[in-house]
What we know:
Elements: H1 3-16, E1 33-34, E2 46-51, E3 54-58, E4 63-66, H2 75-79, H3 88-97, E5 106-108, H4 114-117, H5 120-127, E6 130-133, H6 135-143, E7 151-153, E8 159-162, E9 165-171, E10 207-213, E11 216-220, E12 239-243, H7 247-260, E13 264-268, H8 289-297, E14 304-305, E15 312-315
The structure holds zinc ion.
Amino acid sequence: MGKLSIYLLSLASLFFCSCAYKLSSYEEYVVGSPACKAPRTKGEVSVTYLGTSGYLIESGKTAIAVDPFFSRHDLRTVLLNGPIPPKPDVIASSVKKAAFPDSIDGWLVTHAHFDHALDIPCLQRQFGGKTYSSETGRALFKACGVPARTVKATTAGKCFRIGDAKVSVLEATHDRLVGMVVPYPGELEGDIPAPTRPKDWKVGEPLAYLIEIGGKKIYIESGGMGNSMPSEKAKGVDLAIMGVAVADSQYRYPKAVQFLCPKYVMPTHQDNFFEPLESGFQFASTANFPKILAHHQACEVPGKLALMEFFHEWVLP
Ligand SMILES: [Zn+2]
C-alpha cells in the first residue's frame, strides 16, 4: 500500500468511527477553570489550554504561546487537500475565551504542520512578539508575510530567553500514522509561495521545548515516534505536556513519562481537531485515553495525571 493510501485511510478512520467521548468521563483528572484576565500574583505560573497541542504559558511578567491553533477545518477539506485559510473571526473569539493578555512575548512552534502553525502569522500580527520555529516554519511564516526580523529559525540544542523565561530547544520526532508514515514530510527554506493547503505545511524539524519560567519547569512536545525518548535535559520537570495523538506516541507514552519523572503529566493532542472549538473537548477516535489511564492506574508511570478543557487555565501547584 502506498504512503498516500495509508495516510488517507488513517485520516478516513477518524471520520468513519466517530466514537466521541468527552472529558466529563474523567472528571477526577481535570484541572483548571475558565480562563480570566486576572493578573498572576507573584510567583504564579499558569497554563491555558488552546486545543490540539496549543498552550498559553504565563508568569506575571512573561507570556509565551506554544502551537496556538484555532482555525479548525473539517476532515473532508483536509483529506482532499482543500484550501485552509486562517479564520480571523474564530481567532478573535478564541483569544477572548483564552483571556490572552494584550501582548505575547514569544511564540514557540513544535513543527510546521497546519494544526500547529497556521494561525501564528495572524496572531503575531495582533499580539507582537517573536516566533521561534524550525527553518521550515520560518520559510512558511515569511511566505505568509511575517517580517523576517520577528521570526527566528531555531534547532535542537539552542537556548534563548523570552522575557523572564529561559527556553531550551530539545530534539524531538513526529508520530507516524499507522506506525509507518509521517504526514506531510519534508523541509522548506528560502523564498516559497504562501501556503494555502494542508500539504503546503511541511513538517520540518520537529522540536520540543523546556521552558523555565517563574520558578517552574515545563516540558512541551507534540508527540514522537514509538522508540524515541525525550531529551534527558527535561528530567524532573514540574509539568510534562506529552503528545499522544496516534498509536505511535501512545506506545511511547509510558516509557517516555517514566524517563522524565515529572511532577505532573498532561497528555495532549488527543482531541478531535476537525471539530470546531466551540463544541468543547472531544477525544479523537485515534486517541486511546483509556489505555493511557490504565498505565497510570497500574502505577507504571510517575507524575500526577492532568487533563484540561479548552480555554481553561490552571495555576501550577
Ligand atoms: Zn504534526
